Amino acid sequence: MKQIAIKVLSVLSVVLLVQCAPQPKAKTDQANQPNVILFVSDDHGKDALGCYGNDIIQTPNLDQLAKDGVMFNQAYCTSASCAASRSVILTGKFGHATGSYGHTHDYHHFSTFDTVKSLPVLLEANGYYTARIGKYHLAPESVYHFNTVLEADERNTVEMADKCVDVINSEAPFFLYFCTSDPHRGNPFKPERWDMPNNFGNKPEGYPGVETVVYDPKDVYVPEYLPDNKETREEIAQYYQSISRIDQGFGKLMTYLKESGKADNTIVIYISDNGMAFPGAKTTVYEPGICLPCIVKDPTQDAKGIVNNTMISWADLTPTILDMAGAKTSESFHGRSFKNILTDTEAEGWNEIYASHTFHEITMYYPMRAYRKGNFKLIWNTAWRLEYPFASDLWASSTWQSIYRNDIEYFGKRKVEDYLFRAEFELYNLDNDPLESVNLADNKEYALVLKDMQESLKAFQLKTRDPWVIMWDHDNSMQGTGVNL
What we know:
By secondary structure, this protein is α/β, with parallel strands linked by helices. It has two domains: 29-353, 3-Layer(aba) Sandwich (Alkaline Phosphatase, subunit A), CATH 3.40.720.10; 368-473, Arylsulfatase, C-terminal domain, CATH 3.30.1120. It has 16 helices and 14 strands. The strands form three sheets. An eight-stranded mixed beta sheet has the order 4-3-5-1-6-7-2-8, with helices on both faces. The protein has a four-stranded antiparallel beta sheet with strand order 9-10-11-14, with helices on one face.
């Protein structure tokens, strides 16, 4: 009798497991779902890509992607900091609303609220096989869960591409999140001599399977916001070399995609998490820090080689990818899908973006909120009485030290004093002042523009439940009681 009861319980257990387990969609449905590759580089600005106008750097594979797809001119991350930006990429929500205020690793320990549903989780629920490789920089894993985690040298994108073959050849539609550590600055951040350039992950012996492409410092382009000197040029040359390594790995990945026969049913997106790792770009909300490369190839679109001037942000990526994948979800997002305006180069209603930066490292508290509409841009430095904090790698850079140690008044076109000590509000007309060097916030002629943009920024903060909205007038309605009930 006891054995019969055990057998009955075993059968019931199997039945319940089958009923409760998520059921895969029929293959006929999956056959219509496109695959998605989201390729994210680390600290890569628009300044260093052939398709964006740099004729020195060698990026033939990414340039080809632009020829085959759509290249956005005004695509923005919402926070020029690795972890904070990546949380937005995979949730469609601003970090100030999800607890993703800054870095997740080591002692920084920021973490996304466990109630948030991320892109890989939502795609998995719609029948996708999800895989990631390379830099993660997200927490907790339960929120940003992938079916498969692949291991490879994050500085060798060719090796990374080799490890992705099985994912590309999977029977189910796949979502591949491919994240390099290039061209982030390499360890050690502090060189033996202050005037030595950072290696940006480059090694004298190179990487297996990668052709080392070396650049002469005298040939590189120095953006106007940086000092044009020996130290800066040497560092940019290293930065270029790291990017050429990215391009080779991207090319290898595209070769595997073509060999699989899935190129015509795979959406490919190339972006960076934030701007180049130089002062004036990374960790700022100035244009070089947040206006980034974004190239999208959607095989369902016949138009190719499109340059799109509409404004999008990384908050739009998750809803766009879900829309392209035909995925169903009840989740709401701060961003919106740009699928239907992909080839509409001047789409109406796409002329504004918001940015929200709070921390980089835990020691870098300097909340900034930004709003761009048309040619005007407002920056609100809520901690403006503090000296602007440096990321550890940027402070140690020979580019910054060449100015700081020699007591030079200007860093590029901006006074060092103005870079370190900022006004509470910065208002710029980017048509006339693309370097954001002439602050119009105190100019009476722009008083109405300032007021309108301040009101829009505050409304955005209220809509996205930004705790730092309290800094406007000390309205603590969003702060809660501080008591666990």
